[in-house]
Structure formats: structure tokens, C-alpha cells
Amino acid sequence: MAGDVLSQSEIDALLSAISTGEMSADEMKKEEETKKVKVYDFKRALRFSKDQIRSLTRIHENFARLLTTFFSAQLRTYVQINVASVDQIPFEEFVRSIPNMTLINIFEVPPLDGNILMEINPNIAYSMMDRLLGGAGSSYNNVDNLTEIEQKIMMSLFERSFDNLREAWDDITEIDPMLIELEVNPQFIQMISPNETVIVISLNTIIGETTGMINICIPHVVLEPIIQNLSVQYWMQSNVKATSPEQAKILENKVKQAELDIIAELGSANITIEDFLYMTIGDVLQLDKKVEEPLVLKVGNLPKFTVQPGKRNKKMAVQILDTVKGEDDDE
After folding, report:
1. Residues 74, 177: Cα–Cα separation, whole Å
2. What Pfam families does this protein's entry cite (predicted)?
3. By C-alpha distance, which of 160, 187, 194 is closest to 100?
């Protein structure tokens, strides 16, 4: 009974049985403590944790945004792509879920082993092709009769889109996607065992006025070498990247080349606004420093050194005498 939702009539029946003595509270407690057997389908082995599924979702949400920008530029029409779902299912179930005639890109992702599938709904595929050939983006399903020219056009488009997949995966691992085959019949795809667990990322896609799905199928064997990279801990650690000695040296050199304002202050004087308004050429201001006293050299408006004025190569200069001690010594 634990975990089941009872209707009001079932609740009333239980209360009635307890009140009439047909069932005791101890018997109900024993029944609740009885171990429940949970059915486990070995054909649907759950080999990815929820944490890893969330990481894959984040990766492909980024991929969907990049793909939206890429296709918008290539097709010159309204494009919207977003992640509809991320599921782990047997490969056989994935093959059964897609149309008998569709557009399937099979590509490698070295250095990872195995292949990844990208299935494009025929309506979406032909809408893309119509736009590339100068049409309005009309969609018609005739994927089983693709000509060689049409195949080349679609392969070229999706080969260029793989740069976005490479960028989306960059935080997890470096991959180099390469298209190796374009298939239209899913029944001919026998790259892994039918019972092998795969991740299926479904992307809801809008091209102009045409809607459809793009499905990405990633076998477990492909992700197995980097499965630990899909944890939250790895994401948090990868966001805090240590600075290499070479980067530190470059940064130090850049800081050394930064320009600073240096001011040798001869002194200061306080006057009234009235005196300031009536100042003319030839007036003399008496400063608060004597001639023999050292000047203050300010670096970035902060007093840093005491100096004495003079000339060097017929130009005005100052000679540093000492460092100014104070609260800003560490800056």
C-alpha cells in the first residue's frame, strides 16, 4: 500500500474495517513493513545517474543555442531550437521510435570510440534544403529518393554545424566530430547491440513555418571514458582553472606595460573664490612648501616617493630620494 494513492472510497473502507474489528492497526503496520519487490527491466538498464543526465542536458541546451544561430545565418529564416527531452533507452527502442524513412547522420567523435547519430525529421530536412536552394522553405517528404546532389548539400550543411557541437562539449572534453555516412533507413543501422543503453536528446526544431524534431543518439560506450566528467564536481572544478606559469608570465608582462600617471607636486595653496575670479597674468601664489623641502611624487594619485627637482639632458626631471611610508604601502 505504501506509495499508492488511495481513493476516498478505499480510505472509508479501511477506516470501517478498523472500527468494526475486521482489521487491526497492527496488521496494517505489518503489511506496510512487508518488503515491496520492484520490477527491474534489464533491457532498460539505467546506466546514467540523474546528475549525469543534467550535465548532458546543459551541454545540449548550449548546443541548441549555437545551432539556432548557425542555422539562422545559413538558411536566412526564422529558426528556433530547444531541448525537448533527454532520456536513456535501449538502442532498439530508439530505432523503433524514428520514421522508417528519415535523414540520419552517422559521425565519429575522436578521440572517443564509437559513433553518434543525428536523426533529422524529413519535414525539417527538406525545409532546410528548400531554403538552401533559394526556395521559401516548403517541406515535402521524399527522403527515400534523395539524389546525390541533395545528399551532398545536406552533408555539407551538417558537417559545418559540427563546429557548434565541438564548442558545446569543450568544457567536458575535446572532440573532433566527422561525418562518415548519411543513411535514410534506420533498419540498416547496426552499429551497437540492440539492448545497449543510449542517451537520446530530442531537440524541438522550428524552421520558418515547419516544425519537427532533431534527435541525437549517443551510445553509452562513447561516453564511458569521460563519464566522470559529467559530474557536478567536475563542472565546478573546471570553472576554476589554475593559471599556468606561461599565462602568469604573460599577465605579468602586460601589467608591466600598463601606463600610469605620475605627478610631481610642487605644493598647494588655498585661496578664496573671489581671489580666483580676479586672478590675472603676473599674479603670484605662495605655496605651502619651502624651496629646500623635497617634493611628493604621486603615482596614480597616490603619494609614493619624495623627490627633488632638477634637470636631465636639458629637460625637467626629478630624483627619487625616499619612499613615502603610510597606509597605502601595499598598493
Report:
1. 20
2. FliM, FliMN_C
3. 187
Q: What strands, in cross-sheet order, belong to the sheet with 103-108?
A: 79-90, 197-207, 210-219, 115-120, 103-108, 178-183
Using DSSP bridges, classify how beta strands 210-219 and 262-265 pair: parallel, antiparallel or unpaired. unpaired
Q: Say if CB 143 and CB 122 are below 8 A apart.
A: yes
Residue the block writes with cell 606561461: 246
The length of the chain is 331
Supply the pTM of this predicted model: 0.57
The Cα-based distances of 244 to 171, 234, 237, 241, 250 in angstroms read 18, 19, 16, 9, 10
Give the distance between the most distant pair of CA atoms in the chain: 117
Which residues of the chain fall below pLDDT 50? 1-3, 327
Residue 68 is predicted with a pLDDT of 92
The helix/strand count (H/E) of the chain reads as 10, 10
Q: Are residues 214 and 116 in the same domain?
A: yes
Predicted pLDDT of residue 232:
63
Q: Are 204 and 82 in contact (CB under 8 A)?
A: yes
- At residue 25, the pLDDT reads 58
Query: CATH no. for residue 215?
Result: 3.40.1550.10
Q: How many angstroms separate the first and last alpha carbons of the chain?
A: 70
- What pLDDT, on a 0 to 100 scale, did the predictor assign at position 250? 84
Residue 318 belongs to what H/E stretch? strand 315-323
Same domain for 232 and 265, yes or no, is: no
CA-angle at 109, arms to 104 and 112, nearest 5°: 130
Strands of the sheet containing 302-312, edge to edge, are 262-265, 295-299, 302-312, 315-323
- What CATH number is attached to the domain comprising 294? 2.30.330.10
- Residue 61 near residue 164, CB atoms below 8 Å: no
- Give me the residue label for grid cell 597674468: 281
Query: Could you tell me if 151 and 207 lie in one domain?
Result: yes
Whole-angstrom Cα distance, residue 107 to residue 325?
66
